[in-house]
Design goal:
Number of strands: 12
Structural class: alpha/beta
Number of helices: 12
Radius of gyration: 23 Å
Largest sheet: 6 strands, mixed
Length: 404
């Protein structure tokens, strides 16, 4: 692939000023999930400036977008972009860098994919942080004609994920509202039924459950509504819990255990629990395709960035992504790359947003875009790679769609 690799890397390098400008533009105007109107428009403008027709409002989602090039019946690789920000701390998860990597990879790979008779798409997916945009796009049929997909996520420091794959947990949300009876807290407390007691008991019960879950599992939550005034017995109180697990089956089981705790809290407090599981789509554990990730790693290596290759994939706890849903639907990669900031400035820390616009971060964006572009080109031009990726995907269970 060396005869293609050099021109692709050169094409991405030529895009460096535009990619840097895109990273900064999104950084300066962060928008939370499903409100990324200016961000989606800025990405569409960049793609249109290179002659591509972009559909915005794709899949029935106002801030989703898609552009496609190449043969309609050729092998189809989708480059995935994210561009939503976090409330209050902007692009502290680096989605502005993700968007630039995707745009750079698509623009660099597009002519090579089209010439080879393949097909390449850029799919802009909203609300990774709060709404499961990728799962909504799957449900709308947006990945039905895609054969493989990839994106790159930024991280802290200078490290990368293993070529054998970053593992993430799946996550489900559980919202609960306790309904009690209001009364004067001093004058007639015996007439009240304290909904806040229900929420507090639930929180404490979940805390006790944490002692008896797998090391890779996570449960965390907050009380979102605790009443109106201390001298009124709260008739309504609410909480929201996130449940994470490294496997789909254990994610279902842990969800059931948490729901049982929430129901028990209602009995203890004499209130009624209104429980909503999955107010937004679940995020599934990520399933990295090793065959495709090796191609990405080889190009990153050309940029002097080492990608480790340990002997086994170990289940991990930690964050979640709706790219996990895509990875269960088509062979996918989701490697991470450090942006050169301090190791202790981790994504979701406010300072990480500032890291994304520094010169080392732009270098990482360019390298990651070149590697992702090369992976897409290799996929559509190399039947052996497609067969290897497909066999690996089939051995892991094949196409999976979440069913409630």
């Amino acid at each position: 692939m060396s005869e293609v690799r050099s021109p692709i890397s050169a094409a991405v390098d030529a895009l460096r000023p535009q990619l840097s400008a895109l990273v900064r533009a999104l950084y300066e105007n962060p928008e939370v999930g499903f409100e990324e109107r200016a961000s989606a428009a800025r990405i569409a403008e960049e793609l249109a400036g290179h002659g591509f027709e972009v559909e915005t409002g794709a899949y029935g989602l106002e801030t989703a977008l898609r552009t496609t090039t190449g043969a309609a019946d050729g092998p189809h690789f989708a480059v995935i972009a994210e561009y939503d920000a976090l409330p209050g701390i902007g692009h502290a998860c680096g989605h502005n860098a993700i968007a630039a990597i995707a745009v750079g990879a698509f623009l660099a790979a597009a002519p090579f994919v089209a010439e080879a008779g393949g097909r390449l798409s850029l799919i802009g997916t909203p609300a990774e942080e709060n709404g499961g945009g990728k799962e909504l796009i799957i449900r709308a049929g947006g990945f039905d004609d895609v054969d493989a997909a990839g994106m790159v996520h930024p991280g802290s420091g200078s490290g990368t994920t293993s070529v054998l794959g970053q593992r993430t947990t799946g996550v489900r949300r559980i919202a609960v509202t306790y309904h009690g009876r209001a009364s004067h807290a001093a004058g007639a407390p015996w007439l009240g039924r304290n909904a806040l007691d229900g929420a507090v008991t639930a929180y404490q019960g979940v805390a006790q459950l944490r002692q008896h879950i797998l090391p890779t599992d996570r449960i965390h939550g907050i009380i979102t509504d605790g009443g109106a005034a201390p001298n009124i017995v709260p008739e309504r109180a609410s909480a929201l819990f996130y449940v994470r697990s490294a496997e789909i089956d254990s994610l279902r089981e842990l969800t059931d255990r948490v729901v049982a705790v929430l129901e028990g809290a209602a009995l203890v407090s004499g209130t009624r629990a209104e429980i909503e599981v999955d107010p937004v789509p679940p995020y599934l554990p990520l399933q990295t395709n090793v065959a495709l990730t090796r191609r990405w790693a080889a190009v990153i290596g050309d940029h002097g960035i080492l990608v480790p290759d340990p002997p086994a994939v170990v289940p991990q706890g930690g964050p979640s992504t709706d790219m996990g849903n895509v990875s269960r639907f088509v062979p996918s990669i989701h490697p991470s790359i450090g942006l050169g900031g301090p190791d202790d400035v981790f994504p979701h820390h406010a300072d990480f947003a500032h890291v994304t616009v520094q010169p080392p971060a732009i270098e990482a964006v360019v390298a990651a875009a070149a590697a992702l572009a090369q992976t897409a080109v290799d996929y559509v031009t190399d039947p052996g790679l497609r067969a290897e990726a497909a066999a690996e995907f089939a051995a892991a269970g094949g196409r999976y769609r979440w069913e409630d």
